[in-house]
Specification:
homodimer, alpha+beta, three-stranded antiparallel sheet, DNA-binding, about 40% helix, four-stranded antiparallel sheet
DNA sequence: GTTTCTTTGTACGGTTTCGGACTGAGGCGG
DNA sequence: CCGCCTCAGTCCGAAACCGTACAAAGAAAC
């Protein structure tokens, strides 16, 4: 099913062959279209996903005034609370950029984790990475202006999405950052004037990551 | 050493007797004075702490422009990255309100966790709780004004500090929230006008938690 | 080509917060 | 009692954002 050679998910790719063999029979390949919901806050979480490509958003307060807490791409997995002993999700998670992944049912996850300490360690590592990301988001939301937060977000998206074109409307970015839509429009203009991106209707193209990093003013940290 | 009857730390208190027996011989009672550093970002983490009373702050960017990511009291423990397989801390952690706790060396922690699955599960639960708190902080920092964030912070501190008097200067609160000091002064006045707190030089007294909750405008969630 | 819908750009007044500076008030030691 | 130091209160102009509304531009449908 999941041939080792073709695996792009960092977690799966870095498993020992023994651990991978443990999971492989239960990894179901799935298509992950735009807006596909992987998790819903307050609901029982029956499966986790390892993304091969595409990007998912972890969103808090989705019912009222949504704001993004973090993003997940092929560097990690969804369903972290399951690893921590919680049956229910805290946030909504849905696909922000379409892609593919592997779905693993809760029961199989628990079983596999109970059988291999090294597997559990590999998965818990994801939790650590995500916690680091969330920590940086706390800082960015607390001290940085829209323009810098947007630059950070675009860099994180660019890390996870194939190609330089990010298909995103201002409206959507505003939701992610928890700010006004015109605020995003203006921030995008600033970033374009800085030569980091070019605007297109319905998408943004990253043309100069280094400039974008400078414009993020220290809020961006690369994966790993 | 740590007599079960006297344990106030939620994690230790809720362990099975077997798990507690596993840890007990290695729990060293420690006094935790104000500003005592429990963890330093980037340094190897050689021990974890279970607080019995007092409160610790998890602070990011401590070297440059510090801002608080979360707080830890008797509901949890420090050193979460150790549980997740990381040897180094991501943030500074130091005592915000003095107290006592139990110190557990890394080696003993690893040993105990490897011997008991239920113990590991109990500790991982802390990670989940802390991640939830961090998630709420992302939201609060992203959308709420100083006054609301301050109300939230005071409630969390009140949850963890014995008595109603919180010994905190405006300067310090400003650092925690990542805002200007005069901003805190004004927010405190608003909260006092709202009848939720009274000001004293060098400390704040919570007189009406319910009003404080209202003034926090939905950003506060109780422990567990 | 015209209509319709989505997306983007712009404008306006008002609020929040900033950075910085300065004054006053409380507490402590000499 | 006096001086000193910390902490708290206030004020200033400037910047960042907000909520809202409306117009222009693109894309798609008819």
């Amino acid at each position: 099913m999941a041939e080792t050679a073709s695996l792009r998910n960092h977690v799966l790719k870095n498993l020992t062959t023994a651990d991978l063999r443990l999971l492989e029979p239960h990894l179901e390949p799935v298509k992950l279209p735009l807006r596909k919901v992987l998790e819903r806050a307050g609901k029982l979480n029956k499966a986790v996903y390892f993304l091969e490509d595409g990007m998912a958003s972890v969103v808090a307060d989705a019912a009222t005034r949504p704001i993004e807490v973090g993003v997940i791409g092929r560097e990690g997995m969804t369903g972290l609370p399951l690893l921590l002993g919680a049956a229910r999700s805290d946030s909504d998670i849905y696909m922000q950029a379409p892609g593919h992944g592997h779905c693993l049912r809760e029961a199989q996850l628990r079983l596999a984790v109970s059988q291999s300490d090294t597997l559990r360690a590999s998965l818990l590592c994801c939790v650590h990475v995500f916690l680091q990301q969330t920590t940086r988001t706390v800082v960015a939301n607390g001290r940085s202006k829209i323009e810098e937060r947007l630059a950070r977000w675009l860099l994180m998206a660019d890390d996870r999405i194939d190609g330089d074109e990010l298909p995103l409307t201002h409206e959507f970015l505003a939701m992610m950052l928890g700010v006004r839509r015109p605020g995003v429009t203006e921030a995008i203009q600033t970033l374009e004037r800085g030569g980091a991106i070019v605007r297109k209707r319905g998408s943004i193209i990253v043309v100069d990551r280094n400039r974008l990093k400078k414009l993020s003013n220290g809020t961006y940290f690369p994966i790993n």
